[in-house]
Specification:
Blueprint: H1 9-17, H2 24-40, E1 45-50, E2 55-56, E3 64-65, H3 72-83, E4 87-93, E5 115-118, E6 134-137, H4 139-157, E7 161-166, H5 169-183, E8 190-194, E9 201-202, H6 224-237, E10 240-244, E11 254-258, E12 261-262, H7 266-274, E13 279-286, H8 292-303, E14 307-312, E15 319-323, E16 328-332, H9 346-365
Parallel strand pairs: 1-4, 1-8, 4-7, 8-13, 13-14
Antiparallel strand pairs: 2-3, 5-6, 9-12, 10-11, 14-15, 15-16
Helix pairs in contact: 2-5, 3-9
The chain binds ligand PAZ.
The site of ligand PAZ has 13 residues, from helix 3 and strand 13.
Length: 371
């Protein structure tokens, strides 16, 4: 019997049974130009994946399954890779955090709070008097914003950042494969840093409902029992079962039981087929500290790639563990002193990754076996 994980050929079948994202051919051309440009300059290229993936429940999608990831790890890491001289393909969940703009987006860092009106003295006294009507950056944020702005502009001018958005797990997988194939020319100058939180489960196309799954009776149905049968049938197509709700909320309520298949494990294919010469780093997220190391080692043994970076949901901004064939290495941010900003853990992770990439390239050039 096939266990919960999918068979190897399922990976190929997955691409045959799902539609590729629109404009894949055009994206592919742009990607190849980006890769070739940096290859010609001897610049390394890293694929950073970032953010969650959605799992649609309907073909014309109203509802989907999602996860917590905001893309902080990916967006922050991308900035440190750019600083280290890499060109970055940033494969990210649409509307998740982006390198540079992450400093001023989302509810915690609303960009409007960084601005004031020229001519009005703000509550912190950092406006300035003139005839009014202009918008300026508040004094206390100017130095940091200038620094971010300069880095952002440099990345644009040097064309070192390629933004590649996805939404569903399927578009993520198509794009990952495409980037990997386009990056093959780089051989060991290519690095994969897979920080996205990719769904392990999906609804196969042949069980996907076309239209919005109904939670109650439809108007014009001949009788309640008939309407219920319609609703149940639509859900069953989606690999789901709609049941009468026995919660006491009333006969119209339905339970939706969702039956998902495992997403085939593409890491093996990436390592062995799509990017055989690249350095490949995957992330592993757990919530139970007792199984984190076990799961990291299991992934390393199963996929034979270079490094797994493990982290726990509750402490992911403060500590991670690097797991490779030789050892486990914890990286922790120093505790912030009063009034000091917390160090971003990616400022420690990325230089360590770059050191290991240097070593791997050095070893290959010296003809040593990869460690
Ligand atoms: O996006 P974020 O910064 O909130 O979280 C980052 C993360 C926990 C998703 C990432 O570090 C990670 O572990 N990604 C892999 C998740 C997994 O598939 O196990």
């Amino acid at each position: 019997m096939m266990p919960a994980s999918a068979a190897p050929s399922d990976e190929l079948e997955y691409f045959d049974t799902h539609s590729a994202p629109a404009h894949l051919a055009a994206i592919s051309t742009q990607l190849q130009e980006f890769v070739n440009l940096h290859h010609a300059h001897g610049r390394r290229v890293v694929l950073v994946s970032s953010g969650g993936t959605t799992v649609p429940l309907e073909n014309q999608t109203v509802r989907f399954i999602d996860n917590f990831s905001a893309g902080t790890r990916g967006a922050t890491s991308a900035e440190y890779f750019l600083e280290a001289g890499y060109a970055v393909v940033f494969l990210h969940r649409q509307f998740s955090l982006l390198p540079y703009s992450r400093h001023y987006s989302h509810s915690t860092n609303c960009f409007l709070d960084y601005l004031s009106e020229w001519g009005r003295i703000g509550e912190d006294g950092d406006g300035a008097s003139s005839d009014g009507g202009d918008v300026v950056v508040r004094e206390r944020y100017r130095a940091q914003m200038l620094d971010v702005l300069r880095k952002y502009r440099r990345a644009k001018e040097q064309k070192t950042l390629f933004l590649l958005p996805y939404t569903t797990v399927t578009s993520y997988l198509f794009l990952l494969r495409e980037v990997a194939l386009r990056m093959q020319v780089l051989r060991n100058d290519a690095l994969f840093y897979l920080a996205a939180a990719v769904s392990d489960f999906f609804v196969p196309p042949d069980r996907m409902a076309e239209h919005k799954i109904q939670s109650g009776d439809l108007p014009g149905a001949p009788d309640t029992a008939g309407a219920r049968a319609d609703t149940t049938a639509a859900a069953a197509v989606a690999g789901m079962e709609a049941h009468d709700d026995d919660s006491g909320l009333g006969a119209r309520g339905k339970k939706l039981v969702i039956d998902l298949d495992p997403v085939p494990k593409f890491l093996k294919r990436l390592v062995e087929g799509w990017a055989p010469h690249a350095m490949i780093i995957s992330f592993k997220l757990e919530t139970d500290p007792n199984i984190l190391l076990y799961k990291c080692h299991q992934a390393l043994n199963r996929y034979s790639h270079h490094l797994v970076i493990g982290n726990l949901l509750s402490t992911r901004k403060f500590e991670v563990v690097f797991v490779d064939k030789k050892a486990d290495q914890w990286i922790r941010v120093p505790e912030a002193r009063e009034g000091q900003e917390q160090v971003e853990i990616e400022s420690l992770i990325v230089p360590e990754v770059v050191r290991r990439h240097d070593r791997a390239i050095g070893a290959k050039e010296a003809g040593e076996p990869a460690s």
